[in-house]
Amino acid sequence: MCRSIKTLRPPALAEEATEDEMRAAALQYVRKVSGFRAPAAHNQEVFEQAVEAVAEATAELLAGLEIRGGAAARRAS
Questions:
Q1: What separation in angstroms does the CA of 51 have from each of 33, 39, 74?
Q2: What mean pLDDT comes out for the span 55-71?
């Protein structure tokens, strides 16, 4: 997978992941899967939709994870 995507949950991150961090990870994922660093104009809309969908899925995942020790990683969606 993409080596530049970092872990976004505690304890890897001292604090909750920000929306910017989640979007950056989503962007890296979509770039890797699509094979495009920057899509052509005719693919821009679908590329951005994919980034947003992955960012939303990431936020949902992180919000639902329970970290050992009883602390829940809750994220604002």
A1: 11, 12, 21
A2: 85
Measured CA angle at 28 (ends 54, 66), to 5 deg: 50
Contacts of 29 (CB under 8 A, 6+ apart): 1, 2, 5, 54
- Residue 12 · residue 21 · CB < 8 Å: no
Determine which of 14-18, 33-37, 61-65 has the lowest per-residue pLDDT on average. 14-18
Distance CA 15, CA 46 (A): 31
Helix crossing, 19-34 with 44-64: angle to 10°? 130
Residues facing 42 on adjacent strands = none
Burial (CB < 10 A; 0-12, 13-18, 19+), residue 7, is: exposed
Are 77 and 59 a contacting pair, CB within 8 Å? yes
